[in-house]
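#struct-help
A.M.: can someone run this one for me? Single chain, 410 residues.
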Amino acid sequence: MNKPQQPVSFSPQQQQFAFKIRKEVEQSVQALQQGRLDEAINGLQTTLNSHKPDVPGHDLVTHNLLVACKRKIEQLLAAGDHAGTTPYINLVLSLQPRGQLANDRDFRSGFADSLHGLGICYADHFLFEAASLCFRKAISINPCPTYHNDLSFALSAIGLPGKLTDYAPAMEPKQLGQHMFISCMPKSGSTFLKNVICRITGYKDCFFFHAHGQNEHDLYLPPLLKFSMKNTVTQQHSRASHANIQMMQAFDIKPIVLVRNVFDVVVSQLDFYKGPARINTYHQGGFENLDDEQKIDLIIDNFVPWHLQFHASWLDAEARQRLPIFWLTYETLIADKPLAVEKVLEFYGLKYSREVIAKTIEAVEADSRKNLFNKGVSGRGKTGLSEAQKERIRSLTRHYPSVDFSLIGL
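D.P.: on it. Structure tokens below:
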């Protein structure tokens, strides 16, 4: 059992209660050690209900009761009596440090670890709903990355949504800012769109991933927590993984999914990787010595599968109604930029005049640092790829027989 970091002084009356509690607890702990779990649970519960939280030892009794219930649940699960665990898990979920140790970091950590351990036990028996309840309770006591990982797995197993309290137990939904999130294929005009939206709204340009370069653009909790109460615009190459979706659900993030004809993407990526951007890949040595056809073959083999995964993941998220999603194509964007931007803003409940939007687009296009369109045209893949290369790209869709890739030209 954990002890407080600082000495705690007690009144004579509190000490009298403490002696009484100690005697009761010693009997219950002895029963616990001897495997008489029902007796231990009943004794500890009686002690807990008989005394107020300010009585010395209250939190230690609470933790002992948690441990006793955990062992009883483990015993029942091992015997295959899943339903029999219900009253004990309900008791566990009602327990909370409320006494002298309620703010003791080490005690809270140990208490949460016991809850997490119980969640793991439930998960090992494929009881993911009960596991998720234990993980969420542990997070409410002491947020820990390990708890988040296991909770994400449990939620994924049963298709439950993420909640704000999973990541920020003390935060209220009304405190959240508005997060405009562009989840995009590379070379789809996403930087241009982000810059226009930032300039119109005044929202903060903010990435929610761990690092640039070769890293996958999965959502990363530390920056998301830091800027969760700000209005932000984010542009990331993020697939609709379970973990990403759960965090978006929790922080009320509705994504714009920006896609482009995949043949055009390949040609645009060829231009991109001919320059310094090749540092984002693992193809450092020898790439510059390949001819364009060989470089395109490399891009098809290594990067097109990611684009198909990206597209399929967001279609699946939409089909399962996991998030509100606004689909936008590069081709629609460049055909009528003011209209496309207006529709994006409306998706987030924002209204700006077409004149303001058009002037903002003009200003961004005039700024070479903000306008990163490569060629700003569509159809380059028709002439930039051989028929054999196009067919190789098309053949990759055989791995997704039920997915409609028409939005990206397949």
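A.M.: thanks! The longest helix spans residues 12-33.
D.P.: also worth noting: The CA atoms of residues 77 and 390 lie 55 Å apart.
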